[in-house]
């Protein structure tokens, strides 16, 4: 009898200590970001690095951090979309912070989408997935100074933004 | 929550062990006190009477007479035990997010086996970091208890291992939720009110029960049990999950759960059965 009680005790203690589902695991796929790849306009199949690109959301004072810095010189970026509302506007500034103001070029892209909320787990709650508007997924404008847009072409690769494993938008410049 | 639950378990189990030991030591003492004087008295009384008569045939008869004297002392009472889970009732008093009641009952089938059942109703609002929901529903658990404790004389304590099959029908209402965003650039984590209701849910599960019941006085028993549950069927809502099931309690990732109750029961005796003492005959 005592052995049985000890067994129950051991099992119960092991149960009480495995309550890890209180914290949302970082590996759990939750609300995805918009994955953008930058490509060479002249050679559309080749990824091209941007130079000191700064991406700032509308109404925000600081840019999105890429590896801790506000500018990136890579060819792929992931930017979050607003989960409240159905539109998110970003300004993409090339050569941000460059001492030569002629090189600094700012383009603005507004993304329009619909959202859907999916249950993930107790610890993570819900996640939002996005579907870019099929007729008008983005609006590309220049910043107030009407110079030549540095972004030459935008291609929507995936309308459904469900995970971050694929490139949703290709930007050619 | 995590720490309170853990310490709560350890306190429970500590209690469980002390209960178990307390029960096992007392009967030995009582047995020693009670059986010895009875035997010695009857033996001396009988031998005093027997001495003047012929010696040979009566030597064999005399132990048999002793047996029939001591055996009728022990009878087992059979009947129905009904009661209430005090934990659920008292929790409703201090926890405004919880209302619940559980009736428990068992019927003694044989010396060792009891038919056992629990019937309950719960209304619980769970407030987690990311979801807040209300679960309402009823449940029924039916099964058996096996009393592994050897009672001395007229004691009727129970240390049991048993099993139950539980079934629950319930509904969930999602009160509010939050969207998880690993990249909170826009710093938006509003709590979104929902009020969406998921009806017609059900679940069934198997429980392994370890329990103790001690006779406090007359026919009143106090006991508690610890349960490990495993889901068998679970009808889940669309775009939500059965994070709490009445009777099963909180669900964990691997479809396991735990439960416990603290009961006060009243025993209604129906008939008595004399114990046929097999062990004495073997001697």
From TrEMBL, chain A:
It holds the Pfam family DUF6452. InterPro entries: DUF6452. Keywords: Signal. Residues 1-19 form the signal peptide. This is Lipoprotein. It comes from Flavobacterium sandaracinum. The lineage of its organism: Bacteria, Pseudomonadati, Bacteroidota, Flavobacteriia, Flavobacteriales.
Automatic annotation (TrEMBL), chain B:
Residues 1-22 form the signal peptide. Pfam families: DUF6048 (PF19515). The lineage of its organism: Bacteria, Pseudomonadati, Bacteroidota, Flavobacteriia, Flavobacteriales. This is DUF481 domain-containing protein. Residues 26-46 are annotated as: Disordered. Keywords: Signal. It comes from the Bacteria. It comes from Flavobacterium sandaracinum.
